[in-house]
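**User:** My hope is that you can spare some time for a protein that puzzles me. I have put the entry right below:
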Amino acid sequence: MYVFAITQLSHFLLHHLDIAGALEFAVLFAAVWWGWNYTAWAANWLDPNDRTVQSWFAMWMFASLGMAVAVPEAYGDRAWLFVVSYLALQLSRAAFMVWAWRGQVMSRNYAQLLAWSAIAGVVWVAGVFTPEAARVWVWLGAVLLDYLGPRVNFWLPRLGSTPMSTWPLSEDHLAERNRLVFIVALGESIVILGATLTGTTLTASAVIASILGFTTIVVLWQLYFATPHGNIEHERIALERATEVSRSAYAYAHALMVAGAVVIAVGVELVLAHPWDTADAAAIATVLGGPAIYLVGNVVFNRAISGRIAASRIAALAGLAVLALIGFALPVLVLAALALAVLLLLALAASGWFRLPSMNVES
């Protein structure tokens, strides 16, 4: 379902390349991600061989399909489908967990999570009945409520909060699931690259652009899977810290990292379609913004996992910022080549060709 959802989201952004479209994309992506994120966390505590669990997962898959189908017209005629599907996914899952863990602390935890989802759900529903031009702002409020819940430990008046220590989980499970969804996001870049090349005359510019796009995807894979600061095997996190660390590293940081990969996919298409056009705001936002969003997420991820921030990531972000300042004077193809050069230098630094220090920060 999420392979399809990411495809729908990347195509939505591709057809709405302006400030308003970027905001609309961000809200839809945040909702799709949160549906996946909560499902991944719930799976940590469920037996995948249980037939009841399998049946519920099938229903949650169907709800996710409804969200994905609605994405292209989510701010139009299918707003109701997006919201109904999203709330069916979020509320039924939390309610099932309340029942499955009845009589235990986890049931109370999920009851408070359910309350937060229901409160945000009121705002989601209100957005359906809001004029289309203002709908994104109402839904932005709903997204902020959804994302705020874990940060305040699902605090409710008179009931208090649900401390992270009462949500025991396996960090290994979430790490693996997030690696898989990141692969899905990288796969979307390959799909867009291949589909665009299929309908494009293979001129020298198209071949160069495709090589740049493919190499960018490979380097991003390298940065994520094969460097000390990517989501690779690391020292086991102490059990008492695993949930709090996972909340930042996977629920929040990976949202940015996956979003960055999706935006990079759109940038690959733009470079192929308009290689020698002078870069405009849309080109800069995708060609440079995609890597920047990924790197910000990666900084948050490493801050959560190790308590350190790699100076190489900060240097790469600075390099992308400099390119953004001069980008409007460059052809899109040249801008993409320079962005790739920044990522290549970062990969070389991470591989040990040269080193920049890490900065310790308070955990």
